[in-house]
User: Which sequence fits this backbone?
């Protein structure tokens, strides 16, 4: 490279440097929006009228939605950085930002929701032609200009008035660099390192492979939020304007209306070096709450950072992202809790707040097994701390919820990191036969089981022992029944009573008996295998002894949406990181099963109503239709499904063909079978 003074200044290093600023900017905005949303009061129990409570609940959802979209922008910026061959930037300066890190007009600090803060958000997201002023109290400490107009080899910051203006300049520089170096040379990063919609369903997670896709990503960021045209009602700018209008109306009706708790402006955990602009959290319960929330946030950054080192598709990449997003869900209740606790005696009338303390560096761990060890350790430490917090939190519901989510995540990390990291195969690789039936140690423990199709104690006609059905071996609730040519496997806990067995093979599956009720030798082996194949829940499986092949993975992965009932999976299933116990499985979609994620028939008890005929959406034929299908039930959230899949209606019509989907399992989505976020609003609990 001969970039010296006097030659064009746009170099890859300069572009990456500017993308780092873009990442910091999006990251900062996300944190400030979250902070304001956490501070909003909720419900009449916090002194609001019904109308005010409904409004603050709506604003909270809206601001959180904006924050999630900022996260999508952040991911787009990370992907562009990666496409240029760089390592994405996960760090940022801590709050409040000192002047110079960003242009003078971009003031960033943590503050609770108020009219001034809302006006500040409007100012930050304003289009270039807007005359909106900044919020009161957000005027810059100094006015200055950044940057250097003369060419420098050292990357120099760009000066800009609006965020939209910043991205315009970034796009111009990228185009100039591409014109000079060529597409292929510029976009030299390994595409497999980027995060895609297979891992996370954010706008912004589209692959960046050339200048067209990179510029499209910049454009999407500007259109959706910063600098979007004023008439775009879904832009961040217009959504904040709508909140301002509602707030003004409610204030006019009730001048005493205070929508938010008085959370601190710029809370800090340690005694500040400079006093006056930070609130030191002296209250130990508040400080401990913020400590755990911050640690969740930091670990989330570590996990996402590490995910950019792993080429996709890979179970470890998906695991890092799922755990990271799970931590965000665990963090939110603590962020809300902190805003409701007093900061301490030096700040009367002022509450605490999550400080989002960033790590000095969140670089990914080197390849090898160290990352998994670190993550397992860190989850355990975090969980210890969270349990201690719980012990001093008077049973606060938000802390309880956070710890419950964290426990689930820590278990998942412990259970899955080692195998995910060592997995040499990708999600597109074919399954091995050993995945069909997990090996189980035999144990002689015969038990009486009730046959499906009737109640064993109902007084109906019984065939007493002596019916020649062999006595099963029972291991972990699974019956192994030895026949001449196969071992029949029956797992009653998974049975949803579709009754194919007792109607198609009544001589083998003998209904209404006490004691052993399955006799595999009472029909031809091939026909018996066919009965197992139509058992939707996978409760009936088999292992052949006659040299013929066991059940094979299907050639097309199918998810059937059953009318008023569960999902029926027929695929090469990996449930929660483990090979499925069968290629068939029925999972709860009504939210009421006592045996989640499995269906236990509770949909009948609660009279669950949900169409089995959702409309057909994106149904382009997939290049590959089989391969492992990873199902990851999210704590208190949907089923995250990754792999090639066809979602079909109860009658077999194609609903969608996809490589990743989030399927509702709370039963309340308005967009079934897909999750639309309603689970959070209704407080769905997965355990
Ligand atoms: S799980 Fe039902 S809406 Fe998300």
Assistant:
């Amino acid at each position: 490279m001969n970039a010296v003074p006097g030659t064009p200044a746009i170099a890859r290093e300069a572009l990456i440097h500017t993308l780092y600023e873009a990442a910091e900017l999006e990251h900062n905005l996300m944190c400030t929006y979250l902070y304001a949303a956490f501070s909003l009061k909720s419900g009449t129990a916090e002194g609001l009228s019904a109308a005010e409570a409904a409004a603050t609940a709506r604003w909270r959802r809206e601001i959180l939605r904006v924050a999630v979209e900022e996260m999508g922008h952040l991911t787009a910026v990370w992907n562009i950085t990666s496409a240029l061959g760089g390592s994405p930037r996960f760090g940022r300066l801590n709050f409040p930002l000192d002047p110079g890190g960003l242009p003078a007009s971009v003031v960033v600090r943590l503050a609770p929701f108020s009219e001034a803060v809302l006006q500040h958000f409007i100012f930050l997201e304003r289009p270039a032609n807007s005359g909106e002023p900044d919020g009161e109290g957000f005027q810059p400490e100094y006015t200055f200009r950044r940057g250097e107009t003369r060419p420098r080899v050292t990357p120099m910051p760009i000066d800009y008035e609006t965020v939209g203006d910043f991205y315009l300049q970034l796009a111009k520089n990228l185009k100039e660099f591409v014109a000079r170096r060529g597409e292929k040379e510029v976009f030299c990063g390994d595409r497999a390192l980027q995060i895609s919609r297979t891992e996370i369903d954010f706008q912004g997670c589209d692959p960046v492979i050339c200048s067209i896709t990179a510029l499209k990503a910049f454009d999407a960021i500007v259109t959706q939020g910063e600098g979007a045209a004023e008439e775009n009602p879904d832009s961040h700018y217009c959504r904040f304007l709508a909140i301002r209008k509602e707030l003004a109306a409610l204030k006019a009706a009730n001048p005493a209306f205070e929508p938010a708790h008085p959370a601190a402006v710029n809370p800090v955990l340690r005694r500040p070096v400079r006093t006056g602009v930070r609130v030191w959290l002296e209250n130990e319960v508040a400080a401990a709450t913020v400590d755990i929330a911050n640690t969740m946030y930091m670990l989330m950054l570590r996990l996402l950072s590490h995910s950019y080192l792993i080429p996709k598709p890979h179970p470890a990449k998906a695991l890092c992202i799922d755990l990271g997003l799970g931590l965000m869900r665990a963090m939110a209740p603590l962020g809300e809790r902190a805003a409701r606790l007093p900061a301490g005696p030096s700040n009367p009338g002022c509450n605490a707040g999550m400080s989002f303390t960033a790590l000095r560096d969140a670089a990914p761990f080197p390849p090898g097994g160290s990352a998994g060890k670190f993550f397992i350790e860190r989850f355990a430490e975090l969980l210890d701390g969270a349990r201690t917090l719980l012990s001093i939190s008077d049973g606060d519901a938000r802390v309880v919820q956070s710890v419950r989510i964290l426990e689930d995540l820590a278990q998942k990390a412990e259970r899955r990191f080692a195998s995910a990291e060592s997995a040499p195969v990708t999600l597109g690789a074919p399954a091995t036969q050993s995945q069909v039936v997990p090996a189980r140690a035999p144990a002689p423990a015969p038990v009486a089981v009730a046959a499906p199709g009737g109640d064993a104690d109902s007084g109906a006609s019984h065939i007493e022992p002596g019916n020649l059905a062999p006595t099963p071996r029972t291991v972990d609730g699974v019956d192994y029944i030895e026949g001449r040519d196969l071992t029949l496997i029956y797992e009653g806990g998974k049975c949803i009573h579709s009754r194919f067995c007792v109607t198609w093979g009544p001589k083998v599956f003998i209904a209404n008996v006490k004691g052993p009720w399955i006799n595999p030798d009472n029909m031809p082996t091939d026909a018996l295998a066919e009965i197992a194949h139509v058992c939707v829940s996978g409760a009936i499986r088999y292992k052949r002894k006659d040299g013929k092949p066991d059940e094979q993975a299907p050639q097309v992965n199918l998810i059937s949406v059953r009318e008023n009932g569960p999902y029926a999976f027929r695929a090469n299933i990996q449930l929660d990181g483990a090979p499925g116990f069968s290629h068939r499985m029925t999972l709860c979609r009504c939210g009421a099963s006592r045996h989640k994620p499995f269906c236990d028939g509770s949909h009948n008890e609660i009279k669950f109503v949900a169409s089995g005929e959702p409309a057909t959406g994106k149904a382009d034929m997939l290049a590959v239709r089989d391969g492992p299908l990873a199902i990851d039930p999210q704590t208190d959230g949907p089923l995250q499904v990754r792999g090639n899949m066809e979602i079909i209606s109860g009658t077999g019509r194609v609903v969608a063909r996809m490589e990743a989907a989030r399927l509702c399992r709370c039963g309340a989505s308005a967009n079934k079978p897909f999750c639309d976020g309603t689970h959070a609003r209704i407080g769905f609990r997965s355990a």
In short: Residues 637-638, 664-666, 668-669, 675-679 surround FE2/S2 (inorganic) cluster (CB under 6 Å). The CA atoms of residues 247 and 253 lie 10 Å apart. Confidence is low (pLDDT under 50) at residues 425-466. The radius of gyration is 29 Å.
